[in-house]
Amino acid sequence: MYLCISKTVRMTHSEENYLKTIYHLGNYGVQSVSTNAIAEQMETKASSVTDMVKKLAEKDLVNYKKYQGAKLTEVGKKIASTIVRKHRLWEVFLVENLNFSWDEVHDVAEQLEHIQSKKLIDQLDAFLNFPTHDPHGDPIPDKEGNFKKTDKILLSQMDHNTSCICVGVKDSSSDFLKYLDRNSIALGTEIVVISKESFDGSMMLQIDNCRKAISKEVSNNLYVKSVL
Amino acid sequence: MYLCISKTVRMTHSEENYLKTIYHLGNYGVQSVSTNAIAEQMETKASSVTDMVKKLAEKDLVNYKKYQGAKLTEVGKKIASTIVRKHRLWEVFLVENLNFSWDEVHDVAEQLEHIQSKKLIDQLDAFLNFPTHDPHGDPIPDKEGNFKKTDKILLSQMDHNTSCICVGVKDSSSDFLKYLDRNSIALGTEIVVISKESFDGSMMLQIDNCRKAISKEVSNNLYVKSVL
DNA sequence: ATTATTTTTTAGCCTAATCTAAATTTATTT
DNA sequence: AAATAAATTTAGATTAGGCTAAAAAATAAT
Do the domain assignments include residue B119? Predict the structure, then answer.
């Protein structure tokens, strides 16, 4: 039951970026993704997407029928997961070893994810001691593309008088991450939900014995794991 | 007396590779390099080189006059030295931290040298503890592009009954580096020249109390520093 | 000082990846 | 069900980088 990629597929950076986008938008490659969704995400034009998707279909990396969007094939999924794996491993390296903060890693990892070298990524994985999550709490696929999806929920879904631990972010924009830094919220931070306002969705939290009010936008972009 | 690059020049990988080649062939950018020399080194066609050199001249990265080759400008030299700096720092990282051997690093470093991030390279430099030489003994330019050129000579130029220390290689092909590995010759290895054969240029060496005969090809590609 | 040879440049073509604008298909509303 | 709107595709250009083949310039050899 192995997926064999006999002749290693030669991929351009652009092709890799498209696969990665389809992987992310299509829920790890299980769903079909529309041309427009890809175009919006990649900040390009729908016509460019059509062209590229045809090319990827030609290479059997996606299944594509006119007007019906694109869905990754097994091979496409494998390649996409490898790119994500590389991206997230590099993010760990940057934060753990090169003093990057979690809001600075994305652009550089975006470049590093395209470096081709099996040995490089295997050794990096070992050097980092086989991390399972990146600095934003996102899971790192293993060599086969598998990862355990964490049972995380949005902070906004927690009830009042409950406790949870921050396990990830939905929005990983620099602005949001810096906001979290300023408010001492990091991966692993324990958060107690004191109260929720129904009229604006804001919340009163307790973090390290300090009370903090946060907006709906914040609680809708922070993933937590409930603690009993 | 500083060189200010006000607006950061946006470089493609291809442009960077050309600059690097001109830097190397032109003796760190001091000499003019012919179109054919560039083409041969880069395994491309002379006509392609002409086109690219014109483009680089347009950007003021090289000085170019028809039929007279290309020479790096100060700005071009600075950019080229940065690429070489990145290449060599990555090589150190691969060998020191990711268990690569010195014959495996080149191809990967060739990709990594194009990653754009000032912070990345500064932090990597610090992480590696500011190395001055790469795994092949080549000097790593500092941020300003300066490096001390070591007073190395080819092993073939040593007299018999003299001692020296291996400080670098001229040929850094995988084959040659593996040969050196098999013969326990590495950077820092002490070598005693026992004798030289005038008819074929071969040498008898003593390394770690073992005698080894090497060909002229070998002694012509190994840099050493004489020890008194 | 002419040839001949080598080097370099020019001209024209090709592919990858993008774009705009127009055409077409699908989806949504009256 | 027809009309409108939205999404998608096609057609035709463009730009970067490369190639081939022919022309031009520089160098070498007779």
Answer: no
